[in-house]
Amino acid sequence: MRVLIATFAEKTHFLGMAPLGWALRNEGHEVLVASQPELTPVIAATGLTAAPVGRDHLLPQVAAWARRLGQGGEPAFDLLAREPERLTWEHLQRGYREALLPLWWKVINESMMTELTEFCRWWRPHLVIWEPLTYAAPVAARACGAAHGRLLFGLDLAARLRGHYLRLMAGRTGGDRTDAMASWLGSRAARHGGLFSESLTRGDFTLDYMPDSLRLDTAPGVRRLPMRFVPYNGRAVVPDWLRVPPDRPRVCLSLGSTATDRLGGYVAPVSEVMEALADLPVEIVATLPPGRHTGVGTAPDNVKVVGYTPLHVLAPTCAAVINHGGSGTICSTLLYGVPQLVLPHHMFDEPLLADLLVKQGAGLAVPAGERDTPERTRAALQRMLAEPSFSREAARLSGEMRAMPGPNELVPELERLAARAA
After folding, report:
1. Among 78, 257, 401, 410, which is most exposed with the fewest C-beta within 10 angstroms?
2. Which residues are listed as membrane-spanning (predicted)?
3. CB within 8 Å of 90: residues ≥ 6 apart
4. Do 2 and 49 meet the contact criterion of CB atoms below 8 Å apart?
């Protein structure tokens, strides 16, 4: 079976897909990874074969322009909105038309849409696995007759939004029923003789590594296949210092790489967070990219500033992890039953994922509106280390994650799905 993994060029999103690629290769299937040229070295470093298509997207530049235009105000459209008074037809329609499509989804897809379709028609994959915002992939899969499905990188916000939109549209008896998403994907499918259907927005199936306790309700029409999370953050080496057991509770401070790679900054001032924790009887391990070491000043005595360290090796040695709420970091930590203090970024699903973690009792969160003083972070960490319930609930969720089928166990089902579409 020929399997194409397709993603727009975003390192953290792709790395979460690599373990499934390995599982498919180990079962003897041919696997290629298609993305914009920027991601080629990252793909090749995983041992999978890259197929560069199209041109690099300009999302960082567009996002910077949008931030300057908004001058730091509210985002043009908030995918996290749940209040009924905000989820109106007019609001959602405007969100698709003026924000999600022109400022995000078209930006990351249009530069690869045609070339990806041409590649699929040449290679003829039997199955296409796509990152859930890479809508060029289902269009390409449809053009070559392949089965296709999404592999989520976090909470399924796009499908939830689509479900709200379709429900509101079905209830309208007159007026404007324009569907910008359907118009966009339908026009792209039509170039190759295809028609729009909702499978272009949600796949024939959806692979989801979130445990039941942390995921959203499955959106209407989505066929969910749970798959155990396998932590992978790229090539790494275990540092010597990590082999020495700490003489105090170890706390990892990891505020994400995408924030620095794409947005130029962290969710909270690292130096202020470290200073607030300076006199606690703990060992703080702050993982910072090399270019960020000099920006934090002199670290307190109880802080070890290190470069990239594989979280799946570091987390099991920790009593707690302070992070930005990214799904990969949350799941990598939770897999080892370690409680988390989340300072959520607001790039995608981080605030909502933090809320779900707190409701399960496996951690605490200090939202952006409450981070006026670092002492709030200090108090939250002290509470989490003092109350054993946080470790107990984190261990419960770890057990839930480990009971999910691994990527290799999903391969036979993927084979059946591909055969059904042949």
Report:
1. 78
2. none
3. none
4. no
Based on the domain organization, do 295 and 212 belong to the same domain?
no
- HSE-up of residue 237 (Cα within 13 Å, Cβ side): 5
Alpha helices in 96-222 (DSSP H): 106-109, 113-123, 136-144, 157-170, 180-190, 199-202
Report the candidate in 113, 128, 91 with the shortest Cα–Cα distance to residue 184: 113
Residue 299 carries which DSSP code?
Answer: P
Q: Which residues of the chain have pLDDT under 50?
A: 71-73
Q: Looking at residue 140, what is its pLDDT?
A: 98
pLDDT score, position 73: 47
318 and 201 in a common domain: no
Give the CATH number of the domain where residue 249 resides. 3.40.50.2000
In 3D space, the residue among 228, 233, 319 whose CA is nearest the CA of residue 282 turns out to be 319
Together in a domain, 97 and 207 = yes
Rg (CA), the chain: 22
Look at the alpha carbons of 18, 23, 24, 25 in this order and tell me if their dihedral is positive or negative. Answer: positive
Where is 263: in which H helix or E strand? none
- Please tell me the predicted confidence (pLDDT) of residue 177: 85
If one counts the domains in the chain, the total is 2
Please tell me the pTM assigned to this model: 0.94
- Whole-number Å distance between alpha carbons of 53 and 405: 32
Tokens of 286: 């702050």
Whether residues 366 and 410 share a domain: the answer is no
- pLDDT tens digits along 146-179: 999 999 999 999 999 999 999 999 988 877 889 9
pLDDT of amino acid 403: 99
Q: Are residues 398 and 408 in the same domain?
A: no
Identify the domain containing residue 321 by its residue range.
240-402
Strand partners, 35: 52
At what angle are helices 18-26 and 407-421 packed, to 10 degrees?
A: 80
